[in-house]
Specification:
alpha/beta, 10 strands, ten-stranded mixed sheet, 21% strand
Length: 334
């Protein structure tokens, strides 16, 4: 509840409009990266609906609008396995409306648009994708405005939770993960051991980016491979939000609960949302979406765990995130 009291912090203000861009980075390189940017834009009138589909609601933004002047904090977002930047677009647009620049890549090999097995097996490059996005936005203010390099945070859902923990300084241990899967074979991440090459010693190197000043994990997965020592040594604030209703292979106690158990208590906030399921963090579903997805065996994407609507769950998540960022990325003098 303390977090909610900070809702109207120094950064909780409404920007004129939300601008939106898509960037292709290193199109001809070995790991081309497409990423989306939401940002405070100068007041304009030609907003459009973006990322709208027959399944999910999109968001309103001015495509390629001129960025607002002044420095802005940056939030980089990492989607889950098989996801895209669209998954958390509802939250990204809300944050941009409050003065943040938000950027989210489609991770090569683990996105809905790219399932290349070679790139999927390069899991250690996932955190680096976020670092590349920070590099580009920090070096080019014409994209989304000037970035305040002292106010950068990372946020991730599912495998994106693993990504931002690694970026914050968590160290993966392949033997530890193998033992966790022996003890808890139900875990969804264990079924991805071959696809993600989770026995690769290269995963044990540091992936930390010290520009990250805080991080948020939304029902993170693959968490049990991080050593307790490395989690205990993470010196930046964190917000861990777990889904209290299990979808069958991601019990919150074994993933988000494990993370919370070893992060420094002084700087880590932990919340379980009892009626949220793993996919409650995705976009809001349209009427009839469950019936459409049922034919594809994917109706779980639009199901939640209680009587509240996904929109109500999203309001709770957004309140927690906004309050946490307002507290831990405080506005400084311009």
């Amino acid at each position: 509840m303390t977090l909610l009291c900070l809702l109207f912090s120094s950064l909780a203000y409404a920007a004129s409009v939300v601008g939106f861009k898509e960037i292709d980075l290193d199109k001809d390189g070995p790991r081309p990266l497409k990423f989306a940017i939401w940002y405070p834009a100068k007041k304009q009138t030609h907003a459009e609906m973006i990322a709208d589909s027959r399944i999910f609601y999109g968001f309103n933004a001015v495509r390629n609008g001129a960025p607002e002047s002044g420095k802005h904090p940056l939030i980089v977002i990492s989607h889950g396995y098989g996801g895209t930047w669209r998954n958390l677009s509802w939250l990204a647009a809300d944050l941009a409306d409050r003065g943040y620049v938000v950027a989210a890549p489609n991770h090569p090999g683990t996105s809905a648009f790219n399932r290349d097995p070679h790139q999927a097996a390069q899991l250690a490059l996932r955190p680096h994708d976020l670092s590349r996005v920070i590099d580009v936005l920090g070096a080019n203010s014409s994209l989304a405005g000037e970035i305040d390099e002292e106010r950068i945070a990372a946020l991730g859902h599912s495998l994106g939770g693993w990504t931002v923990v690694a970026l914050a300084g968590g160290r993966f241990d392949t033997a530890l993960f193998k033992e966790a899967c022996r003890m808890y074979p139900i875990l969804n991440a264990c079924g991805l051991a071959s696809t993600l090459d989770l026995g690769n010693p290269g995963l044990e190197k540091s992936m930390q980016d010290r520009r990250i000043k805080a991080f948020i994990s939304l029902d993170g997965g693959l968490i049990r491979g991080f050593t307790s020592q490395s989690l205990g040594e993470i010196a930046i604030p964190s917000l861990i939000i777990g889904a209290g209703t299990d979808v069958g292979d991601m019990p919150v106690a074994l993933e988000s609960g494990y993370l919370h158990a070893f992060l420094p208590k002084a700087g880590s906030d932990y919340v379980e949302i009892s009626d949220a399921m793993h996919f409650s963090f995705l976009q809001r579903c349209k009427p009839g979406a469950i019936a459409i997805l049922a034919g594809e065996g994917q109706d779980i994407l639009c199901k939640d765990g209680g009587n509240r609507s996904r929109e109500e769950i999203h309001h709770q998540i957004a309140d927690l995130v906004i309050a946490f960022l307002g507290k831990n990325l405080p506005k400084t003098t311009d």
